[in-house]
Amino acid sequence: MRQLLNKAMAVAEGGEVYKRDVHSTSVDIKLGKLKGINAEKKREVALRLTKNGLMGAAVSTSLEDDTLVDRALIALENQKSDAIKFPGEPPRMVFSFSPEVDQLSTEDVTKMAFDLSRRLKEKAPDVPSGVRVQKSIKRISLLNSAGFNETYDYSNVSISLYTLTEKGFMGSSKEYSSGKVPEVSDRDLDRLIERHRLGSNTITMENEKMPVIFSGNVMGALMLRVLGGVNGGNVLKGTSPLKDRIGEKLFSDKITIRDDGKMAFGVNTCLFDDEGTIAKNTVLYEKGVLKNYLVNIEQGKKLNQEPTGNALKRTLFSKEIEDTPSIFDTNLIIEGDHQEDELIIKGIKRGLLITGVMGAHTGNVNRGDFSLNISSGYLIENGELQGQVKGAMIAGNIYDLFKNVEAIGTHYEVMRSIFYHMGYSPMVLFKEASIVGK
Amino acid sequence: MEKEYFKKALLTEDFCDLRYQDFSHTTIKGGKDEIDEVSIVKKSGGNVRVLSGGGFGSFSFTDPKDITLAFQEAKTASDLNPGKEKLKRIPTNVAHIRVSPKEDPRDLPISEKKKLLEKYRSLILNNSEIADLESQYYEQFTDTLILNNHGAEVQQEELICGMTFRITAKKGDLTQLTRLSFGGNEDYSQLLNKESEVLDKVQQTINLLDAEPVKGGNYDVILDSDVGGLFIHEAFGHLSEADNLIGNETLANTMKLGTTFAMESFNVIDDPTRLGHPGTYIYDHEGTKARPVSLIKDGKLSGRLHSLESANFMDEEPTGHARAKNFGFTPIVRMGNIYIDQGKSTLEDMIASIDDGLYLFGSAGGQTSGETFTFAVQGGYRIEKGKITGMVRDLALTGHLFTTLKNIEMVGNEVSFSKAGGCGKGGQILIQSGKGSAPIKIKNMGIGGQ
């Protein structure tokens, strides 16, 4: 890395070398049979240069790639992205790596998947089910001309459990993702099967306004819109509705939302972000009051805020090394005055529990609009789940919806934003939302 | 890329294959203010698969020196799978495919591509109502070597270039977002002289600011070709990808060939050999020669898209639809260019047949989960008593696949294809995925508004 940086510094004023080594294994089991095992071992390298107030980048799969510096210079000469001052602040320790995960062999991961498949089968021999277990290990190094020279290791185990309907489509599902091996409790398996069985009672909804619970996993679809709002880039462009609104109470005082890059063994825990800003814990909304935006180095200067450590090489649909660092979540955490999940459900006379949605990426996300197909949801009547709702949608805007937070649950689930996990949330009860039914 | 080096590494027993790829991707991106990103990505790597046990083991790598490790790991993984699966049909094609576009984007300097993008950007931004713009020129070239230990040796170049725009208009607190694409194939000349299309799209985006928000409910709708393409891709295309059926006999029963899915004059085809679209290619990433597949013929399920593994499971012929985003992924079944074939109705007849409904234009992304689907559209027009009246905005559609297919009442007499590709599955976004349709009329479609 040092050699590449030296080569770059011969033609540039500032430089940054980013290296990512990835080793991952995934195992899929469907109906008790191993479907396949996929693994990868890859190295990727990114170089960024600054010169005359401009910046350019290039990537490769090898540190020895002779074209890296030239390609970064072509980018620098053709684009108008301002040079950033590379950060040099040394990071503190975070728990992003578990040796226990690192030591898991392909056989161990396969055994883990088979054990889960067997436990599901024992719970409900008549219910077809599937299991996917993925283990990832990464080593990320960043060296820059400001003296930053750090490396951290990252581990993750993600587990997905699902059942299949009698037609062979997805029934109920449950996900886990952690820096350590997640624990799958019997209670979770029981609940998965219980919800699968509710699918045999199909309920068609009419257009109706009613209380709605979003499960922790599905909160990701709404948090994508929260993220679009607090994204410093969107604030500066004027596509977020949150410009000049720091300090305003926009959501119910029952909800607090933070982004914690330092969370021990979180799904997106990191020592530093992909431009070398150390990981932070940033409160976005405290009891409903907007406190901070998520900003990179450049945006932070313009918005008078310290960079938050959220400049990540990714887009909504990819995590490739060539993705320009842009504002994304680390571990979004939803908190509040927690109430028991069962009590929240029991308190509802007539409402919906939503455990799966589609279309999270459609509509005007940055403005907070959503119009989601309820791919998995259950009608609640007099505190009991009655059956599975089919063919309904839920539509609205988060800046209306989040004013109506009634209760925050207790049991945290990993949130999903389409392809990727984005932190953790318990179930959240909203007082009223529009359901578009038959 | 050292072909002989990789050939030597192939295992001599059982089945194994190898895909090694030089991948380059050029992008020029601009936000509202300026072109702020130019990148030329060059990466290389490979993926190997072994079938020595009861299922495939696969391993991706970036360092060619890891080839032996890759085969060892893939074999260990395959052997962990109890049983001994054997492929009944293995491709043995030998071919060298080179691209020869009418105007090759690789021959042009970055500055020329940037200038063209700047020209269209100025046309868009020269309107006070335009509040934001995301614009992009992309060019992806791959040179892929596909080998297996039964003699297949396919080297194939693939090239795609295009431009995409996301245009946001704003009035007060209201914003409206539309999308525009050109190209989506190997020929750079397809990106030239698009000024009038750009101006029309800008005007449409501005007009949407005065549109009424649609009230959620059920409507008779006409989908334009772009939305029709998205509908058939999301609602039916993914279900026709036969890797879903592996180990899932109940779904295989649901998808039994010959089952009536739609009215008699309804036909759906996937054709990777149809030239000039995002999903056009000759060999898939397993070395199978791609062929057009009739998926629904005269309203009945008539075919499905296969990889070697899914064809083996169903005991059907491979169709050449196994593809991967890049060397870092194992091939999975993907659509090539899927489309609803032409019917007999004119658009005028379709509009005249609706008393109270909507004409929807411009796809804006969708998702499917088995038998239910959802997708968003850029805008629409209200149809009242057989006539187009006011514009409507903020539209998302949802439905149950089998019901919706049966609710298709009319199919237009002209097919057109979207210029933008793109499809996500199994964590892989594939830009080389095309879709098209004739306009279609669907009765009683669920529309989610605000």
Helices and strands in order, then pairings?
The complex is a heterodimer of chains A (438) and B (450).
Chain A: H1 2-9, E1 14-30, E2 33-51, E3 54-60, H2 68-78, H3 99-102, H4 106-123, E4 129-144, E5 149-164, E6 170-178, H5 186-198, E7 202-204, E8 208-214, H6 219-230, H7 232-237, E9 255-260, E10 281-286, E11 289-290, H8 297-303, E12 311-313, E13 325-327, E14 332-336, H9 341-346, E15 350-358, E16 369-381, E17 384-390, E18 393-397, H10 398-401, E19 405-408, E20 413-417, E21 420-425, E22 428-436
Parallel strand pairs in A: 7-17, 8-15, 14-21
Antiparallel strand pairs in A: 1-2, 1-4, 2-3, 4-5, 5-6, 8-22, 9-10, 9-14, 10-11, 12-13, 15-16, 16-17, 16-18, 18-22, 19-22, 20-21
Chain B: H1 3-9, E1 15-30, E2 35-51, E3 57-61, H2 67-79, E4 94-97, H3 110-125, E5 130-148, E6 153-171, E7 174-185, H4 195-208, E8 212-213, E9 217-223, H5 225-237, H6 249-254, E10 268-270, E11 293-297, E12 300-301, H7 308-314, E13 322-323, E14 332-333, E15 337-340, H8 347-352, E16 356-369, E17 372-384, E18 387-393, E19 395-400, H9 401-406, E20 408-411, E21 416-417, E22 423-425, E23 428-430, E24 434-437, E25 440-448
Parallel strand pairs in B: 4-6, 8-18, 9-16, 15-24
Antiparallel strand pairs in B: 1-2, 1-5, 2-3, 5-6, 6-7, 9-25, 10-11, 10-15, 11-12, 13-14, 16-17, 17-18, 17-19, 19-25, 20-25, 21-24, 22-23
What do you see in this structure?
The complex is a heterodimer of chains A (438) and B (450). Chain A has helices at residues 2-9, 68-78, 99-102, 106-123, 186-198, 219-230, 232-237, 297-303, 341-346, 398-401, and strands spanning 14-30, 33-51, 54-60, 129-144, 149-164, 170-178, 202-204, 208-214, 255-260, 281-286, 289-290, 311-313, 325-327, 332-336, 350-358, 369-381, 384-390, 393-397, 405-408, 413-417, 420-425, 428-436. With 438 residues, chain A is of the alpha+beta class. Chain A folds into three domains: 2-195, PmbA/TldD fold, CATH 3.30.2290.10; 196-221 and 336-436, no CATH class; 235-325, no CATH class. In chain A, a hairpin with a 2-residue loop joins strand 16 (369-381) and strand 17 (384-390). Chain A is globular and about 70 Å long. The relative contact order of chain A is 0.14. The N and C termini of chain B lie far apart (54 Å). The mean pLDDT of chain B is 94. The radius of gyration of chain B is 23 Å and the shape is globular. Chain B is of the alpha+beta class and 450 residues long. The longest helix of chain B has 16 residues, at 110-125. Chain B has two domains: 3-208, PmbA/TldD fold (2-Layer Sandwich); 213-448, no CATH class. Chain B has nine helices and 25 strands. In chain B, 20% of the residues lie in helices and 41% in strands. In chain B, strands 1, 2, 3, 4, 5, 6 and 7 form a seven-stranded mixed beta sheet that branches. A six-stranded mixed beta sheet of chain B has the order 12-11-10-15-24-21, with helices on one face. Chain B has a five-stranded mixed barrel with strand order 9-16-17-19-25. In chain B, strand 22 (423-425) and strand 23 (428-430) form a beta hairpin. At the A-B interface, strand 2, strand 3, helix 2, helix 4 and strand 16 of A face strand 2, strand 3, helix 2, helix 3 and strand 7 of B. Strand 2 of chain A pairs parallel with strand 3 (57-61) of chain B.
